[in-house]
Design brief:
By secondary structure, the chain is of the alpha+beta class. The protein has 16 helices and 16 strands. It folds into two domains: 308 residues, 2-Layer Sandwich (BirA Bifunctional Protein, domain 2); 91 residues, Rossmann fold (3-Layer(aba) Sandwich), CATH 3.40.50.
Length: 429
Amino acid sequence: MSQHLPTAPYRGTRDFLPGEMSVRQQVFHRLYEVIERFGFVRYDGPILESAEIYEAKSGREIADLQLYTLTDRGGRRLALRPEMTPSVARMIAANANKLQFPVRWYCHVNCHRYERPQRGRVREHWQINVDTFGSDSANVEIEIFELIHEMMSAVGATRDMYVLRANDRILLEGILTGIVGVPAGRLKDVSSLIDRWEKYPREQLAEDGAGMGLSDEQFGRLEASLKAGEEILGDLPAEVIERSQLAKILQSPARDLVTFDPLIVRAFEYYTSTVFEVFDRDPANNRSLFGGGRYSDLVGLFSDKRIPGFGFGMGDVTLFDFLDTHGLLPKPRPEADVAVIPTDESLYEAARTVAGQLRQAGHRTTVPLEPRKLGKELGRADKAGASAVVIVGPEDWSAGNVVVRHLVTGEQQTVNVPSLPDTIRDLLA
Ligand code: HAM
């Protein structure tokens, strides 16, 4: 007995069989359509990038713990992209002279991160990234927040099922320095403490806070500020509010698009102001569906030009968990609408001619590849989800006819070949 290689995909990666792929494609196409309705155009790029583009500003978690790196035969240090943002910043920098700003781009790519696989987390996931480049206006945020709600609506979600939680690093810094009294050198540490806020018990947070030099009183003020909701913004100086796109949105009619939440920090170092995440309200799914923010200096890694960016990544794993939890998954499409079945081998050519006409008319049509009993082929067509079969038999064919059987009702009729496409169209409708 020979030893076979394992058939399971690498841990944390997934095979997508056609049934699942059909469901995914239906959902993704609805999303592409909505995104394009806002004027975003699709781009793509390589899965391999120089490792250093992630080491610069993506944050320690990605760079030190999650990056898949390799050295090519020429000794170059490469990485499988863990995210798209550094790549798109590179592409914008490389093409800035040709582009007309503001630029609205989207892509749909697979990303790799070395993480512990768990609900909502895998090692290869697919992200739709949507980003706008070249504007500091809060209108960029508003447009993308509107788009997110449209995307959710396109997949059948309603506002009570999810929440878009947004924060601004400028506001957070204002709270930490002005209200809590955190020294500038400790801002990063305390931000990472806030990032863990919902995952750890209070005692642990207090202890970590003390380790960062927060007094009990400061920790209390931090806790109170994080709980205060939007009211805390009233305690910030006008100069801080002025610099924040999110603060503008919260004071405008667009305020209903988001929920202000100072607990949203996000791990990436490149974000400069607005940060946000979209969450399922069902506690079964505690990982974000969308994550994004504003990055004003990332393109600056590649160019002297200052080109601010703002956008998000939406992950497939959490999206499909969400759709499943809320009963919103579409059904897979059948393999074919019509199966054309010749009753003996001499009629294959005739069956192919008939199938050709039906395909011309836009129907997904199959013909058997090997002769099998009619009953078997009928069973196969039924399993494949076909709505109709066209049986090509010797006598009918010599009279210029075929037999059409509706697989759901079992009704059967003899049809003249030239009128077959119309019959099938009516039958499928
Ligand atoms: P992110 O929050 O790391 O942001 O990822 C965006 C989304 O991708 C998450 O909300 C989640 O749905 C999904 N995701 C991330 N990691 C995993 C994983 N290991 N398994 C399953 N799903 C995952 C970014 O990547 C930013 N580059 C997004 C961005 C675009 N910011 C601005 N523009």
